[in-house]
Specification:
about 625 residues; alpha/beta; TIM Barrel; Spore Coat Polysaccharide Biosynthesis Protein SpsA, Chain A; 2 domains; 19 helices; about 50% helix
């Protein structure tokens, strides 16, 4: 058995990390820091010599005017830029250097935050990206403050700038006043202009790459956030739509069932062949066969166990039971679909019940399962699969998933007449329907979904009978759970792709079934993690605690929906306490399963069958007492 490529996990984690870094950096650049007290360098200049130092830019509107003014009076200045402004205005930054002016750093987001090593590194990275250089001139000096923040009179500003007779004159690069002061100073006699040494050095390849990445994050972070917001809106809309469909259609389905109970159709009891494919099911096969033998169905029940090359004595355990009407067939390992087809060929009756070798039927399950076949248009019937080993948190989570997910989905899709999956744990088929589609398909990992879709497309109706309960063993380890759900998810995508032609047909599978799977089993699991990621971003990075409140409200609605699903399925509400934790932890694992399956499919990797270790605890399951006798 080949392991799934680890590269998929690496690429997924890297993508999530890059996404979080991009939006976090964008938020970082958008937030202004608290003012800081800084100590700036001083520069010794000769008597009657001044250096003009403009800082806070470059500004896309005012810096070009300032550069025009400096060119008119033939004065070279020094620009102490902000890293975020350099990234926003790369062409203006290049013009500053091209026209012979010196360049330094006064911060990354605001004046003075160059004292923070991280901000200084980001500012240098911005210069490396735009100019390909690093500067040694850091921190705009304040030897002479022009007062352009407090005064507008040009004469006053010129006098304040020249009051020391020499030094670095600080001006702000964010308004027209700077250009006017520069012109006035240039025409004032008795002094000359100098430039500060910027100590430019060529940036290395690594620095330029870092600069390009941070610049891209700053420029495009807003777009990424908009896309995330759109994804979240779509995910929320799909979640609300699914909840409404669950509550509405599931309730309608139950109401119709109650109405039919007032005038029930005649109870039918046709002969049935039960087929059990088994591969290394020695720990469960005895309980499974005993539960079938103890059925209360009023007609003949034939049991065919097909041992598909087991190495643990599965066939021997079934034969040792010595039960009447049970036939054991041994064959070399060919896979579950081949084992099912072998059993179908050996079976005598028209109605065929298929179940896995790790499943226990209740005494009336077979009788309940065949009732929809009173309608000659029904080709297959899905039963109600339940988790038998509910012990522990993982077992409770899977129990909730079955009730609030798979079984509730079947009620919805039964109302729409497009059930896409008759589960391998409990299903019944009309032989003529199987003949129409060529038997159980052998080219997908989810042969039950593939088969059900084919039967529906062939014109047969697939029904759901929740009263036909079966208890199945769920994985008891996280690794086993992931392997099982990974196979299910990948196989479902295979079946959806195989039957994509149904979208062009005027049938329920194309109109509803495939679209339902596409929206709620592919698109929603892909988008929902973005919502969780955005909640973390809003709560931790962007200082938006409302995001957590919205997420908590959404969780409460989902919990209420799960409680309703439990009631519809006749289950106790006691396990519901584990549902919020399931949404925080277990749900992430299911999202990873879907994403991993999709990546595997896109990479064109063929996934082989992955078996799950059995524990033999089925006999302790609810409804499993008959299997212990």
């Amino acid at each position: 058995m080949r392991r799934a490529p680890r590269l998929h996990w690496v690429s997924l984690l890297l993508a999530l990390l890059v996404l979080m870094c991009v939006v976090s950096f964008h938020a970082y650049t958008a937030l202004r820091p608290e003012p800081v007290q800084v100590t700036r360098a001083t520069h010794e200049l000769p008597e009657h010599t001044v250096a003009l130092a403009f800082h806070g830019g470059p500004d896309p509107k005012w810096t070009p005017h300032l550069l025009d003014a400096l060119r008119e009076v033939d004065v070279k200045a020094t620009f102490f830029v902000l890293g975020t402004q350099v990234t926003r205005n790369p062409e203006v930054t290049r013009r500053i250097v091209a026209e012979g002016h010196r360049i330094g750093i006064d911060g990354f987001r605001a004046e003075g935050d160059w004292t923070n090593p991280l901000d200084l590194a980001f500012a240098q990275a911005a210069l490396a990206d735009v100019l390909g250089v690093h500067t040694g001139l850091v921190g705009a000096p304040v030897e002479v403050d022009s007062g352009d923040r407090d005064h507008q009179d040009i004469g006053t500003l010129v006098r304040m700038s020249l009051r020391e007779g020499r030094g670095v004159v600080r001006l702000h690069d964010d308004g027209s006043i700077g250009a006017d002061v520069a012109r006035a100073l240039a025409t004032t006699p008795g002094h000359r202009f100098a430039q500060l040494d910027d100590g430019l050095a060529r940036a290395g390849a690594a620095d330029r790459f870092t600069g390009a990445v941070t610049a891209w994050s700053q420029r495009n972070g807003g777009i990424v956030l908009s896309l995330l917001g759109t994804a979240i809106a779509v995910a929320a809309l799909l979640g609300i739509l699914r909840t409404l469909m669950q509550l509405g259609l599931a309730h309608t389905d139950r109401r119709l069932r109650r109405e039919s109970e007032h005038a029930p159709p005649p109870w039918i009891a046709p002969p049935v062949s039960v087929i059990i494919p088994a591969y290394n099911e020695a720990v469960n096969i005895a309980a499974t066969v005993r539960s079938i033998a103890a059925n209360t169905h009023l007609a003949d029940v034939e049991v065919v166990v097909v041992d598909d090359g087991s190495t643990d004595g599965t066939a021997d355990r079934a034969e040792e039971l010595g039960l009447q009407g049970v036939t054991v067939i041994r064959q070399a390992n060919q896979g579950k679909p081949a084992a099912l087809n072998t059993g179908i060929r050996a079976a005598r009756h028209e109605l065929l019940v298929l179940l896995d070798g790790d499943t226990i039927f209740e005494p009336d399950t077979i009788g309940q399962l065949v009732q929809p076949f009173a309608d000659t248009g029904v080709g297959a019937v899905s039963g109600n699969a339940k988790v038998g080993n509910r012990q522990g948190l993982l077992g409770r989570w899977q129990h909730l998933e079955y009730c609030a997910g798979s079984n509730l989905d079947r009620q919805i899709l039964h109302a729409l007449r497009c059930v896409p999956t008759v589960p391998g744990a409990v299903g019944a088929f009309r032989r003529s329907a199987l003949t129409d589609v060529g038997g159980v398909p052998e080219h997908t990992l989810a042969e039950d979904t593939d088969l059900t879709m084919a039967i529906t497309r062939a014109g047969w109706r697939v029904a759901y009978r929740p009263e036909a309960r079966a208890w199945t063993e769920a994985p008891v380890t996280v690794r086993g759970l992931f392997r099982q759900r990974y196979r299910w998810s990948y196989g479902t995508f295979q079946a959806m792709w195989k039957h994509r032609g149904a979208l062009l047909e005027n049938g329920p599978m194309g109109r509803y079934g495939l679209l339902y799977l596409l929206a709620f089993h592919l698109l929603l699991p892909l988008l929902a993690p973005v919502m969780d990621l955005y909640v973390l971003y809003g709560f931790i990075v962007a200082d938006a605690p409302l995001a957590l409140v919205v997420w908590a409200v959404f969780l409460l609605l989902q919990t209420a929906s799960a409680g309703y699903a439990l009631r519809l399925d006749g289950e106790s509400l006691k396990p519901l306490w584990a549902y919020p934790l399931q949404q925080v932890v277990y749900r992430q694992l299911m999202y990873a399963v879907v994403i991993q399956s999709l990546v595997t499919a896109l990479h064109g990797t063929r996934l082989e069958w992955m078996s799950v270790q059995r524990t033999g605890r089925l006999a302790d399951a609810p409804g499993g007492s008959v299997a212990r006798t």
